[in-house]
Design a protein that fits this description.
This protein is an alpha/beta fold. It is built from 7 helices and 9 strands. Helix 1 packs parallel to helix 3. The longest helix is centred in the C-terminal third of the chain and has 14 residues. The two termini are 20 Å apart.
Length: 224
């Protein structure tokens, strides 16, 4: 089984994170993972990027956590993929399959409504996962059942109740399942992962595997 982390925040790009892209490579290699997806908070979330910078510079700054992890991953034999976590109030949407050039080419992306954002991402070949849709303490839950491709049914940073609700939601709609750690620091004790029977060859291979339900949900304790 090849394990992949799908929900990871770096301190280079996400304000709430305390571990670097480089630190995660050593950490996840020790835990037996084949690869990780860096999904830092986008510009409408808890980002480190200065909103007053010109768009091109904002995008360059946003890529730092991923690029640092990618460089270290190449040295240590861990595959690193790019994604980001788009936010609409407490609705968080993991976006995969797009790249730096797509961001540079879409400087108006923040002006779109969430529904139009989701439609555009999918029209441009991306995939959207609704992350922790029922996290505790949220008064108003926002769902986009016809505009997402999968649901994060196990999030290692959420409660059992929140994860049960996410699973029930995914089952009701017949959406594919994924899991992630939502990791902000290597000090974490419990992880989530998706497991595949074969190694991911590229981002499109990953998207296809998820959409056809080949992602195994993994709950993992840290190996000391």
């Amino acid at each position: 089984m090849y394990l992949y982390e799908l929900h990871c925040h770096t301190k280079e790009t996400s304000k709430c994170a305390s571990s670097s892209g480089k630190e995660y490579i050593k950490f996840f290699k020790e835990q037996g993972y084949s690869g990780i997806f860096i999904t830092d908070h986008f510009f409408n979330g808890n980002t480190c990027v200065d909103p007053l910078l010109p768009w091109e510079q904002r995008v360059k700054e946003f890529m730092k956590g991923y690029e640092i992890a990618k460089q270290e991953g190449e040295k240590q034999g861990i595959d690193v993929f790019f994604g980001f976590e788009y936010s609409y109030n407490w609705c968080h949407l993991l976006t995969f399959g797009l790249d730096e050039q797509w961001l540079l080419s879409n400087p108006d992306i923040l002006s779109l409504s969430p529904a139009d954002y989701l439609k555009k991402v999918r029209a441009d070949g991306g995939m959207v996962v609704h992350a922790h849709p029922f996290r505790d303490g949220i008064e108003l839950v926002r769902l986009f059942p016809d505009l997402v491709d999968a649901v994060e049914v196990y999030n290692a940073s959420q409660t059992e109740k929140a994860n049960r609700r996410a699973l029930a939601y995914g089952e009701m709609l017949g959406l594919p399942f994924v899991a992630g750690s939502d990791i902000h620091s290597t000090a974490k004790n419990t992880l989530g992962a998706v497991g595949f029977d074969s190694k991911i060859t590229d981002i499109n291979d990953f998207i296809n595997k998820v959409k056809v339900g080949k992602a195994n949900i993994i709950k993992k304790e840290i190996c000391k």
